C-alpha cells in the first residue's frame, strides 16, 4: 500500500508560485504528509530530462512512496492523466513518456486514467495547470490510503507512452547506445549500463571521437574529456571541471543531447 510520503518533480522552477500552490493543495487533503522536492529545475517541457531524473531517484525512497511528476507540454490536450502502481510505490502524472524510464526497470502492477473528479481539486480543472487540479490532490489521496482503483478506469500497461530513445544493443565490437540525458554539469549520460563495462578495458565513441574509459573525473587533466560510470550507474562522458556538452558543441559542433548515438568499444574486439 502507498505510504505517507510524496515526492514532487516538475519544470516549474522556483520563481513563480506553482510549486507552493501544489503543496497547498496537498496539505488541504492531508497536512500530515511528508513532501519531498526531487527537483523543479527540469528544463521547460523537457520530458527526456524528467524521465531520467525520476528514474534515477525513485528507488531511493521508502516502499510505497507516491511520486508526482509534472512536465507536461501536452496539458489540456487528449493526453491521459494517469496513476501507475509499481512494486516501489505509485507514479502520478501525464502519460507522455515521462514514466517510461521507471517502467523499463519496474513492471506495472496496475494503471488507471484519472477520470474521477471526486479526487480532483476542482470539478472543472484548468486547461493549463493539471499539477494543481489533478495530480497534486490525487497523489495526496493515494498517499493517504485511497485505492488506485477508485481514481478511474483501468488502462492497459502496454498502452502507456514510451519515450522514443534508441535502445542499448550488443554489437560485434562493443555496445551501441545513445545519450539519454544531460545533467547540469554538462555530463552526457548514456543508456549503457555501467555493469556492462565494469572490470574491462573500454572506450566510448561519440561523433567519431574516442574517449578512454576511466574511474574518476580526475583521471584526466582539467578540461579534458573522460568516460566513466556515474553514480547513477550509467556510462557517461564528462569533462574534468567542465562541461562535455559545451566541449563537443565548441570543438565538433555536436549538440550532445538525448538521442545522439554513442558506441562503447572493447579493444579486444577491434
What does this structure look like?
The protein is an alpha+beta fold. The chain is 19% helix and 29% strand. It folds into two domains: 5-159, S-adenosyl-l-methionine hydroxide adenosyltransferase, N-terminal (Rossmann fold); 169-269, Bacterial fluorinating enzyme like (Elongation Factor Tu (Ef-tu), domain 3). The protein is built from five helices and 14 strands. The strands form two sheets. Strands 7, 8, 9, 10, 11, 12, 13 and 14 form an eight-stranded antiparallel sheet that branches. A six-stranded mixed sheet has the order 2-1-3-5-4-6, with helices on both faces. The relative contact order is 0.13.
Task: Give the C-level CATH assignment of the largest domain.
Answer: Alpha Beta
What would the principal axes of the Cα set say about the shape? elongated
Poorly predicted spans: none
CATH fold assignment of the largest domain: Rossmann fold
Q: How widely separated are the two ends?
A: 51 Å
Number of helices: 5
The major β-sheet equals:
8 strands, antiparallel
> What fraction of the residues are assigned to beta strands by DSSP?
25-35%
The percent range for helix content is 10-25%
Number of domains: 2
Gyration radius over CA: 20 Å
Structural class: alpha+beta
What is the strand tally? Answer: 14
Amino acid at each position: 500500500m502507498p505510504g505517507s510520503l510524496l515526492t514532487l518533480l516538475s519544470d516549474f522552477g522556483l520563481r513563480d508560485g506553482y510549486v507552493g500552490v501544489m503543496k497547498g493543495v496537498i496539505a488541504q487533503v492531508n497536512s500530515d504528509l511528508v513532501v519531498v522536492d526531487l527537483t523543479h529545475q527540469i528544463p521547460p517541457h523537457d520530458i527526456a530530462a524528467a524521465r531520467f531524473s525520476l528514474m534515477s531517484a525513485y528507488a531511493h525512497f521508502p516502499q510505497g512512496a507516491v511520486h508526482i511528476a509534472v512536465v507536461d507540454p501536452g496539458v489540456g490536450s487528449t493526453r491521459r492523466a494517469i496513476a501507475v502502481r509499481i512494486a516501489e510505490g505509485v507514479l502520478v502524472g501525464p502519460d507522455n513518456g515521462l514514466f517510461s524510464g521507471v517502467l523499463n526497470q519496474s513492471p506495472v502492477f496496475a494503471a488507471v486514467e484519472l477520470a474521477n473528479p471526486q479526487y480532483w481539486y476542482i470539478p472543472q480543472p484548468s486547461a493549463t495547470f493539471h499539477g494543481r487540479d489533478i495530480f497534486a490532490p490525487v497523489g495526496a489521496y493515494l498517499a493517504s490510503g485511497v485505492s488506485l482503483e477508485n481514481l478511474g478506469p483501468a488502462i492497459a500497461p502496454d498502452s502507456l507512452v514510451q519515450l522514443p530513445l534508441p535502445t542499448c544493443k550488443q554489437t560485434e565490437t562493443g555496445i551501441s547506445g545513445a545519450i539519454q540525458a544531460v545533467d547540469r554539469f554538462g555530463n552526457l549520460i548514456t543508456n549503457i549500463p555501467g555493469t556492462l563495462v565494469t572490470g574491462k578495458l573500454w572506450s566510448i565513441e561519440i561523433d567519431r571521437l574516442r574517449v578512454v574509459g576511466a574511474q574518476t573525473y580526475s583521471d584526466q587533466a582539467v578540461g579534458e574529456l573522460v568516460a566513466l560510470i556515474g553514480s547513477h550507474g550509467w556510462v557517461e562522458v564528462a569533462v574534468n571541471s567542465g562541461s562535455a556538452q559545451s566541449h563537443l558543441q565548441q570543438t565538433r559542433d555536436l549538440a550532445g543531447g538525448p538521442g545522439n548515438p554513442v558506441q562503447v568499444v572493447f579493444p579486444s574486439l577491434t
